[in-house]
Each structure stands twice: as C-alpha cells, then as structure tokens.
Amino acid sequence: MQDLWRLSAADLAALIKSRKVSAGEAATSALARLDAVNPRINAVVDHRPEDVMKQAAAVDAAISRGEAIGPLAGVPVTVKVNIDQEGFATTNGLKLQRDAIAPANSPVIDNLKKSGAIILGRTNCPAFSYRWFTTNLIHGDTKNPRDPSITPGGSSGGAGAAVAAGIGHIAHGTDIAGSIRYPAYACGVHGLRPTVGRIAAVSGPLARTIGDLRIALGAMSAKDFRDPWWVPAPLEGPPMAKRAALCLHPDGLETVAEVKAAVTDAGKRLARAGWSVEEIATTPPLREPAEHLTRLWLGDGYEAQLEAAEREGDPGALACLRGNRSKVFPFDAAAFSRALTRRATLMREWLALFEKYAVLLMPVSAELPFPDQLDRKDAASFARVWQAQLTQIAIPFLGLPGLTVSTGLVGRVPVGVQVVSGRFREDLCLAAGEAIEAGGAPPAPIDPAS
Predict the structure, then answer these.
(1) Which of the following is catalytic: 80, 113, 143, 242?
(2) Per-residue CA distances from 121 to 27, 41, 86 (Å)
(3) Is 221 part of the annotated catalytic residue set?
C-alpha cells in the first residue's frame, strides 16, 4: 500500500491491528516522507531511523504473538525537543543544552509508547520555547509548509509544520501561552491544550483530524506516578445541552475581519449540526489573566532567565524577555500571592459561564498568522504580536482546555477558531470541534509550498 503517511492515525492503526499492513511498512513510509520534505521545512531536528524501525519491529512482534496493543499501535508520531526522551538531548532550542541527554523518558513519552505509538523524531522549538515563531541558534529556522513567509507558530512550530506536511500522524506539543493552539492555527491543522492536570508537562496533541486528537488525548493522559498534578478525571463528562456562546471581541480584543468571519462561520457550522449558538458581547476577563500568566511565566526568576538568554545569545529570546521587562519585573512574593488569589476569583467567573454554555467559540488570535519573525521587527510589532495573542495567553492561567480547529484558508494563509470549555471538559471541545470540522478544513497533509 502506497503513501501510508497520508492516512489518519485512526485509519492507520486499524490497518495495522488487522494485519493489512505492518508497523514496519508504516515506519518505512513515515521515514521516506520525512526524508522527502523535512529538508524544506526543518520541522524534525533529531531522529534515528534505525531506532524507528526497531520500535516498529517490536509492535509487529507483539501483534504476531496475539498480545493486546494500544490505540496508536504502529502509528508514527513526533515529539517536541523540549521533552525528555531517553538517550536524546532535551535542547529546548538551546546550544546551552546540546549535551543535556535525557536518562529516562518523560511520562508523556512513556504513555505514547505504551499506546503502541512509534516515536518518529523530535520537532523544533524556539529558544527556551518562548515565542510564537520557531527559530534558534542550534537547530535553525522552521518554515511553515503552507507559506514560508508566515510563521509556523511556536513554540511547537516544528510539531505544527511536521503534521501539516505529513511527517507523522500526530505531533506532541506543549502549551503555556498558546504553544499548541497557535502552531495548529498557523499551519492549518488542529491542536488541543488540555486542562491542567490532564497530561504531564503542559503537553497535548496536534493532528490533522479531530478524531486523531481524541485518540491521542486518551493515550497521552494515562496515569503516571511521576506526574504529581495528574487528576483521575474521566475523559467523558456528564451530558450537557448543545449550547455554545460565540464572542468576536472577547474582553475588547481588536479582531480583524477575516478572523471574525471564520469565528462566525464556525458558529453557523455548529448551528447546522444542531447546536444552539448565542453571540455574546464579551467574556469574563482575559486581559487580567493574561497579565498574571505573563508575570508567573517570565517574572518568576526573570534575572536568571535573562542571564541564560544572554549566554545563549538568541535574539528572539532576548527580545521576548527585554520586551516584557516592565510588565514582569520585579516579581516578589506579594505579586505571586496576588496572582494566585486573583486566579481563584477569575476561574469562578469563567466556570460560571460554562454552567450556562457547553463551549465558547472565540478567536485563536486577533489576526491571521503573522509574517515570520514579526516580533523582532521593531517595538510596535512586538507589542502588536503580544496584544493579538490575548486569548492564547489567558486560558492556561485559568486552567481551562482550549482547542484550535482550522476551518479554511485566506489565500494560502490558514484561519480557524478556538473552542474553550470548563475544566476537564475536553470532550465538549472535541464534540464541538468535530461538528465544525465537518464543514471543511484546509487540505492536509500537503507538500511544502515555495
């Protein structure tokens, strides 16, 4: 069978389990696709073909022995280079960490392997995973396969580019301030940032179908004693009425026309699928949570982060830290206490919204995906980027799940919608996402554009 790399993870796993194709054939196809297109986009920055084939052989041997295999049996997936994989450097996009060889796997890696997945390669991220653009001084720039003039997103930019170009069927990413949701948006695929406590290390999946996100969520969220934040919440919560809120300007976000049109269209798709959709003028606060998240992320240990960035010499990381200095420094115990106190109050306001609505539809970003490296152009461009990403920054502070659903293209630039729900209600996000996806999505996988 040709072009196995084109298949969804669900379809490929079904073929492997039924012995219509082997895990070895799937791995061979994935490696050939990587070799064919990765030189043009630099999405995968570390991989070992012999190890990939060894993993595939182990899956095929388990199937031949009649052993129970997981939902991702034989499915090639990629993992971000900021997460521990035994025997590989956890560079996080840093020359400083080129020799930081992981002695053991992260819980997320082990959960993927327990599900039967084959780890195909490690994907690029910006230095320190700071930015919505993916460049660094150790691995180089990642290009967006849909349009090399726009960012592939970040910090999981390599993950988004890989899955859009058919390098792996699912990609692992991490998301503190949009780092799964934005690469999915920029590369025209789908990405889920789960509730805090669902998956270790703020991790989540990117994929070409919502169905594959659901499978990946189940695999990645298995219990591991090494994750002290893990919560044994069911993947399916109690039924809720199919009622959605839609907001074009959450907390005053200055949303461009193309993005407003995409969010509006997503609402119409939900309505056609039997959902009740109500447009609301605004949401509970987003600006305040975004400010607190930025302080907690960059302000805690700011001077040490800046010193490390100066030693690395990465211009993007330095721009991020220096551009936010006035917002986050100094950061003392009183500021930390205020942030945590306000977090509880703000979460209550948001949870009240989700007592009324199953999901909220709103922009992923105020703008279409940015021109690549826009944040380094000048001070005004830096401020523009951070202002546009309000909805991405705020949601993690609130501990809520957020899903990017890519819905179409403006020319060749992707656009989509963000679906948010209450804590541990990824099932509602995915249910709404599937209804939206049914109305159309950018074609994927694709060959990289010139």
Answers:
(1) 80
(2) 11, 14, 13
(3) no
User: Does 8 qualify as catalytic in the annotation?
Assistant: no
In the set 29, 115, 179, 365, the catalytic residue is: 179
- Verify whether residue 406 is a known catalytic residue: no
| pLDDT tens-place string over residues 83-129 | 999 999 999 999 999 999 999 999 999 999 999 999 999 999 999 99
Catalytic, out of 22, 155, 156, 406: 155
Domain around 361: 243-290+322-437
56 and 175 assigned to the same domain: yes
**Is 78 part of any domain?**
yes
d(Cα 105, Cα 189) in Å, to the nearest integer?
A: 27
Tens digit of each residue's pLDDT (9 = 90 or more) over 314-327: 999 999 999 999 99
CA distance 398 to 405: 20
Alpha-carbon distance of 162 to 125, in angstroms, equals 12
Annotate 354-382 with DSSP letters as a single string: HHH-SEEEE-SSSSSSPBTTGGGT-HHHH
For residue 203, the model assigns a pLDDT of 98
Packing angle, helices 49-64 and 9-17, rounded to 10: 50
